Amino acid sequence: MSLQETWFDDDRFHDQCGVFGVFGHAEAAHLTYLGLHALQHRGQESAGIVSSDGSRLYAERGMGHVGKVFTKSHLERLVGSMAIGHVRYSTAGESKLINAQPLRIESHRGEMAIGHNGNLVNAAQVRGDLERSGSIFQTTSDTEVILHLIALSKKASLEEAIVDALSHMEGAYSLVFLFPGKLIAVRDPRGFRPLSLGRLGSATLVTSESCALDLIDAEFVRDITPGEMVVVSEDGIASCHPFPAVTHAPCIFEYVYFARPDSLLYGRSVNVVRKRLGRELAREQPAEADLVVPVPDSGVSAALGFAEESSLPFEFGLVRNHYVGRTFIEPRQSIRHFGVKLKLNPVRNLIIGKRIVLVDDSIVRGTTSRKIVSMVRAAGAKEVHVRISCPPTTGPCHYGIDTPRRSELIASSHSVEEIRKYIQADSLGYLSRDGMYRAVGDLQADFCDACYTGNYPVRFPRESRGSMRNVARIR
């Protein structure tokens, strides 16, 4: 088996972004800043905040982590009692400042800003129609298409124009809009990406995950349901479901990997579900071993569940360095093998002479798993058994997760035994699809699990003929 390896493989899935919004609080921008800190795991390439004092919008954006982008002076310039914020990992559009969100434009409808978590699978076709009709785009982000459609809509109200614009779009979107005097949140009809409502005193909050509410001592109110639009203004909170009803398909991989374990997701505790994933994994794929070790951080909860179900001791036998970025100065060939140890280092005295169960959330290309197994063996492990708390990942995501091409996903073209040989483990076991659904708590639940099954709820570009034949049809 031959797979291309780099000296440091960023062999993980990446969510596209996280959104946060505040309406009706004197410290709206500061609260948004804190909320984005809690959502940093959803995007690390850029961050931005747009605020409003009811008469105009104020924006600050930059490349890098939230703490790097915003200074005290930046936040002081973001005046007003309403704000939206965004953290981004690019899946649609290049990693450049011009693509950092929230995007802000001015049209005949006035100023508007948007933050988007998801991916619009037909954005290229719609953008092509718009460009041929004279529209000029400033970014390479799929999100900008929505703003153009809103500006072009013939509908009278902002709410109607947003619904009109989104009726042309296919795919995943959890959106926050900010207008002078109004905040609007929308979740796509299938509910691919999470979005929640919160409350802090008299202020209304919107967030990708509930952990951001915990940080600012806010109350979780409820999930925004698939296909719902929530409008927040001085008149109060209004809600409607303006889109045709379809089968819901929230992303099940949010439970497996993306969401923070301290979040509530689709009405369930992420940490509880991940421990159940580990318990189901132990029942389905037991191992004769001495010690359970998680691959931090995402494998920790599942490893705890595996250890509890197996009656095996649990130890943090791998220590993660949290201060490594995504770009590095490449070393000479003679020291390239040190790459993986930038992020993980084994605790030798815990591992030496033991049969180790390594629990991780997924195997992507397999290159990182191979290096971790080798590193644990070098630390003195007698045996290394790898257990994965989800089914084999055989297909890419088209709904807001940055995944490799199908040809780069090792499980798309290799059996479990072939993968085991490649990563050089003594044994390899994946959780079954049924085991995953048992852990979630409902075998009949409607989730998007296309990355495991190939059953995509919405057609993606190679299958789509385009949703707009003529831009003149925009209502």
Structure description:
With 475 residues, the protein is of the alpha+beta class. It has two domains: 14-249, 4-Layer Sandwich (Glutamine Phosphoribosylpyrophosphate, subunit 1, domain 1), CATH 3.60.20; 269-453, Rossmann fold (3-Layer(aba) Sandwich). The protein has helices at residues 28-38, 66-69, 72-77, 123-132, 143-152, 158-166, 211-215, 253-258, 270-284, 300-310, 348-351, 367-378, 416-423, 433-440, 450-453; strands spanning 14-15, 17-23, 46-52, 57-63, 82-88, 103-107, 110-120, 171-179, 182-187, 196-200, 203-207, 219-223, 229-233, 236-240, 264-265, 268-269, 291-294, 318-320, 344-346, 355-360, 383-388, 401-402, 427-430. Strands 4-3-5-2-11-10-12 form a seven-stranded antiparallel sheet. A six-stranded antiparallel sheet has the order 6-7-8-9-13-14, covered by helices on one side. β8 (171-179) and β9 form a beta hairpin. The N and C termini lie far apart (54 Å). The relative contact order is 0.13.
Helix and strand arrangement:
Elements: E1 14-15, E2 17-23, H1 28-38, E3 46-52, E4 57-63, H2 66-69, H3 72-77, E5 82-88, E6 103-107, E7 110-120, H4 123-132, H5 143-152, H6 158-166, E8 171-179, E9 182-187, E10 196-200, E11 203-207, H7 211-215, E12 219-223, E13 229-233, E14 236-240, H8 253-258, E15 264-265, E16 268-269, H9 270-284, E17 291-294, H10 300-310, E18 318-320, E19 344-346, H11 348-351, E20 355-360, H12 367-378, E21 383-388, E22 401-402, H13 416-423, E23 427-430, H14 433-440, H15 450-453
Parallel strand pairs: 17-20, 20-21, 21-23
Antiparallel strand pairs: 1-22, 2-5, 2-11, 3-4, 3-5, 6-7, 7-8, 8-9, 9-13, 10-11, 10-12, 13-14, 15-16, 18-19
Helix pairs in contact: 5-6, 9-10, 9-14
